[in-house]
Amino acid sequence: MTDKFTVRHYETIGSTNDEAWRLAREGAPHGLVIHADEQTAGRGRFSRSWFSPPGNLYMSIVLRPDMPPARMSELSFVAAIAVADTVAALLPKRLRPHLKWPNDVLVEGAKISGILLESDADIAILGIGLNVLEAPKSGAYQTTTIAANGGLASVDSARDILLARLAAGLGLWRRDGFAAVRDAWLVWSYPIGETIRVNASGAAREGKFAGLDETGALLLETEAGIERHVTGDVALRG
């Protein structure tokens, strides 16, 4: 299967993910990209609103990867790697993006991208937002942009680089499975043994990062043994 992308551009839209779902249910093919200059109802994980003014990249991709539904969640890691690769290509070489489980992309500790994966049966909609010129003001976490870190990119050039990196990641996933994706994800993440804190279900658990299991769940080494986390927010200790 070859991943070829066709971009459909909108100046303003409510949500690129919503439009991608509408078109997918009408039979839109694998690789259709909904790209908007601005979203008026953008959303992220846990139904959080996503700040979407002009100047950033907002796109959603219709994927029909011919994989079992149980494996669709792996696409979140494929996307995170593609975004990290793209950010690294756009920033000065002295700066290196960092992945925070499961799919946050950070630069100097500040969030630069958001990824939202939604799936149903054999269809997945992959929403990606990348801060090129504008960053939301958030009390919950720091944010940043490509421009603020000395990077040079137009929104369209960032999109094209990202789609090329995503095509490469999808090829790796199909060819070598999630184990290869997991190894690639770990290259951009905190090292094994790093002390982290996982906030899940209102409780904080601290331990050493022990990698990801075969499904992408986070493994936390504690005094009581290895814990497996499938949801939660991660922070470095300190």
Contiguous uncertain segments of 5+ residues? none
Largest sheet: 7 strands, mixed
- The total tally of domains equals 2
Query: What's the total count of β strands?
Result: 12
Q: What is the overall pLDDT average? A: 91
> What's the CATH H-level homologous superfamily of the largest domain?
Bira Bifunctional Protein, Domain 2
**CATH topology-level name of the largest domain:** BirA Bifunctional Protein, domain 2
Strand order of the largest sheet: 1-2-3-7-6-5-4
What integer value in Å does the Rg equal?
17 Å
The CATH architecture of the largest domain can be given as 2-Layer Sandwich
DSSP strand (E) fraction? Answer: 25-35%
Separation of the first and last Cα atoms: 45 Å
Query: What structural class is derived from the secondary structure elements?
Result: alpha+beta
Number of helical segments with 4 or more residues: 3
From the spread of the alpha carbons, the general shape counts as globular
